[in-house]
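Suppose you are handed a protein chain with no further information: no name, no annotation, nothing but its sequence. What can you learn? This example shows the usual starting point.
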Amino acid sequence: DEQAWQTYVNFELRYKEIDRARAIYETFVFTHPDVKNWIKFARFEEKQGFIRSARKVYERAVEFYGEDYMDEKLFIAFARFEENQREHERARVIYKYALEHIPKERAEELYKAYTIHEKKYGDRTGIENVITSKRRFQYEEALKDNPLDYDTWFDYIRLLENADEVDVEATREVYERAIANIPPTMQKVYWRRYIYIWINYALFEELVVADEERCRNVYKAALDLIPHKTFTFAKMWLLYAQFEVRAKNLTLARKSLGQAIGMCPKDKLFRGYIDLEIQLREFDRCR
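A reasonable first move is to predict its three-dimensional structure. Written in structure tokens, the prediction is:
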């Protein structure tokens, strides 16, 4: 069993037989391939002053387990080893690699260790990144239980959009996942929060990304989705028309509002169309 191997190692170390002890560890970690034994092997090398050998053991352990059997304990030990060598950038890379590859539900201690590391050695941006990463994990867990919780989707999106450097693709991906959760009932009260996700998505594409065509596509997709014969959202029609005016496409703006009052002639739509034509000084059209 494992204790016999450890006793054998200790016996050789008492007689300063470092190479023999190393040879025992080499066989030990494959006979009993537990993470804790690889960590013991690496710490043995570190204690004897063989820093490069210790690092090599950690690297071999990561390779040995591969991506299918990753364990947060191994990466925490590896990162702390680098931290002890004052290799803080190496430690940071190890933490980030582990957090990207280990499922979030198995990485709670890893998040804690990374947060402590950044508080001790990182800058403000690094600490914010850790906190953001942890909050993303919490939102993901909440949305697994209830993907129709639109308030959580809003919080998640706001977190991504308020970052110092907005990751456009990651934010788009969350928007796309959010709008895929269509309310299961055709009652307008359940659609209100959902439609605001579409509105925010369109504004994100227009104001943050400055991608006019994608913004247009978002508005059109939202308007295609709303069941106008049952209920509509005048706000969405008006926002789309105002966007086309800003894009200097008056024809498209008028066409969309004409389509809107044809499909769902609400007072708010007529007033919005009238206001637009007044601003454009098109009094005959207005009349």
